Input
Amino acid sequence: MLFKRTMQIFGPIRFLVLLKLLFCMPILAAAQTGPVSGTVLDDQGKPVSGASVIIKGAATGTNTNEEGVFSINAAKGSVLVFLT
Output
């Protein structure tokens, strides 16, 4: 019933385009991630090597290098947690 009604309203070609767009939505949402990089410093402004940088609520993380630099892929709006 719903399929027939949709076909009547949109027509077969428009229905296929609409269906394709619906299947592409999760891909577009997943594409909103990107690299986040920075340097972890202590209270005196010195780089912290070996500090853990994790994404809050996720199992993703990384460590800083000898100069305290890190890079991690995170979704927009993610919260990073730094553990020394």
